Every structure is written in structure tokens, then in C-alpha cells.
Amino acid sequence: MTPDLDRLLCSRYPTLFQRRNLPMDKSCMYWGFSAGNGWFDLIDTLAERLQFWADRRAPLAFWVEIIVFQRSPKLE
Predict the structure, then answer these.
(1) Residue 47 and residue 12 in contact, taking contact as beta carbons nearer than 8 Å
(2) How do residues 19-48 score in pLDDT, each as one tens digit?
(3) What is the pLDDT of residue 23?
(4) 3-state DSSP call for residue 4?
(5) The pLDDT value given to residue 32
(6) Domain range for 25
(7) Number of domains in the chain
(8) How far is CA 21 from CA 32, 57, 60, 62, 68, in A?
């Protein structure tokens, strides 16, 4: 994925991708998204829906925080 699309995802969903700019010894997100540009829409849509539910967690009696720790390309 191009650096511009990577930055766009991280700026749209800073809560989900908060580990993106941590040092490489602290997060696998350091390396960014290794998927092709064609995956952008799918990742963007998924992140939007996850963020939607994460933003509405306040009324719930319990909640699991949603944070992306690592992304990985499909294994072949």
C-alpha cells in the first residue's frame, strides 16, 4: 500500500491504529500496511465499522478495546 494510503487510514482511524508509529520493537504496525492498494477500500470499510462500535462503547456495561496490533498478508 502506498505511504499516502497508509497515512490516510491512520489519520481516519487513530484509535484503531494508535500503535502505527511506535518503534519496531514495540509494535509490528511500525512497518505499515503491506497489502496492495486494492485492499484499501476493504480495510477502510472494516476500520470504519470497528471505529463506529468503538465510539459507542460508553453505554455498555463492559467493553473490549479495539486496537490493531499487527496486520499480515495472506499466507500462501
Answers:
(1) yes
(2) 888 888 887 777 788 888 999 999 999 999
(3) 85
(4) helix
(5) 81
(6) 1-76
(7) 1
(8) 9, 25, 30, 28, 12
